Amino acid sequence: MESPPSNSTDNRIAVLGAGPMGLAVAYQLVQEGYHPVVFEADDRLGGMTASFDFNGLQIERYYHFHCLSDHGLLQMLDDLGIADRMRWTETRMGYWYQNQLQDWGNPLALLRFRGLSLTAKIRYGLHAFVSTKRTGWQDLDHQDARSWIRRWVGDEAWQAVWRTLFDYKFYHYSDNLSAAWIWSRIHRVGRSRSSLMRECLGYLEGGSETLLQALAAAIRAGGGEIHLNTPVTEVVINDQQLAGVKVASPDGVTPDLQPFTRVISTIPLPYVPKLIPALPDATRAAYASLRNIAVVCVIAKLRQPVSDKFWLNINDPEMDIPGLVEYSNLHPMENHLVYVPFYLPGEHAKFADSDATFINKVRSYLKKINPRLQDNDFIDIRASRYRYAQPICEPGFADRLPPAELPIKGLWVADTSHYYPSDRGISESMEFGRQLARQACHQRD
């Protein structure tokens, strides 16, 4: 390992964002002998993994699960000494189709599925099998996902199984998505199987908060700093030289300039053009051209379950969602917990609808799937919103994304887009964040 510089200013590295990637960056910087200073605008750690008090239950605002193939996360748990907090569960998938709740997610369920011909089932199964076994993605990068899937599975399976998942997550962007990105989603979950018939997913005892607090403790124990409620208002560049960061002052009037020779930003890329106005025009334009999907995620606490499925895909003309997650079928708990995400472009008119609108939809959807549910079975129900929840990865996305190390010496900018074609995830953020920190530590003068 390269020795860190002795100069105290050079030894300090600013990290913007205390989500999983930012904390992984700071953790690795400590391991390398540096002094990370983490700035987070929110009042808590975690970003999309942050927890809240849900009527006496500390739970994530947005659902998370872990796969057997999540090597970056598993390595971090080992390093932090909390690997014994991981729990693995055999989970079940389902499909709500033609007003029926059907099994899904294994060869036998596919053969029994009502609503597809035998030919369509064979083509669908072959595509899933080949996608799981495939290792390379580069030749898929410039292909659009809709055409790629339809060539494999045919129009019948596309209409029954795939189309709603595209249309109710990406809306007018659904015709222009990277096949490599879609393949990576199939590949990750397909590899989290203990056998051909059994899917095995994981959760942390205490939820993501267990990981976040362990990371924060390790960072502080190594001399790092974490500042919550401390938004950075500008990364300052003077004459193509990194000067430091301006941090919002308590009075909200005069930002405080803190000098840094190295800055690593892990906040969503759409914020970057405003945050770093002195970037080269071409770099700022590249960030401005990227698009993201927003989410309104409704979480319901129930007295009885909706189903016995963890993941339930949905194809129903009366429901404008691609699926729901019954988290208590992964992580057993006293009550039953269901996440219902509404993914849609942030500029879509529906994103401006009230929380009550989304909550009322969820009540009616859950009661349709399980008619035994009554109003008094709903103990509590809340909605959370996240504007930049999911990057829209178009064909050729790998070529459009600016590299994490920018032309300004000492400046790195990345978010979950940078581990494309992998989908956003805690494990991928752990692995990529640590790699990013190593790059920053070993940059030569």
Structure explained in plain terms:
45% of the residues are buried. The chain has a seven-stranded mixed sheet, sandwiched between helices. The chain contains 13 helices and 21 strands. Helix 5 packs across helix 6. A hairpin with a 2-residue loop joins strand 7 and strand 8. The mean pLDDT is 93. The protein is an alpha+beta fold and 445 residues long. It starts with 7 loop residues before the first helix and ends with a helix.
CATH architecture verdict of the largest domain: Alpha-Beta Complex
The CATH topology of the largest domain is given as Polyamine Oxidase, Chain A, domain 2
What is the name of the CATH class of the largest domain? Alpha Beta
Shape, per Cα inertia axes: globular
Low-confidence stretches: none
* Order of neighbouring strands in the sheet with most strands: 8-7-17-18-19-16-20
Radius of gyration: 22 Å
Number of discrete helical segments:
13
Number of strands: 21
Structural class: alpha+beta
What helical percentage do the residues reach? 25-40%
Largest sheet: 7 strands, mixed
Strand content range = 25-35%
Number of domains: 2
Write the topology of this structure.
Blueprint (H helix, E strand, L loop, with lengths): L7 H4 E5 L3 H12 L3 E5 L11 E4 L2 E4 L5 E2 L3 H10 L5 E6 L1 E5 L2 E5 L2 H6 L5 H16 L11 H26 L8 H12 L2 E3 L2 E7 L3 H14 L3 E3 L4 E7 L2 E7 L8 E4 L3 E3 L6 H4 L5 H8 L3 E11 L8 E5 L7 E4 L9 E10 L9 H15 L8 E14 L5 H4 L10 E3 L12 H16 L4
Parallel strand pairs: 1-2, 1-15, 2-11, 7-17, 15-21
Antiparallel strand pairs: 3-4, 5-10, 6-10, 7-8, 9-10, 12-13, 13-14, 16-19, 16-20, 17-18, 18-19
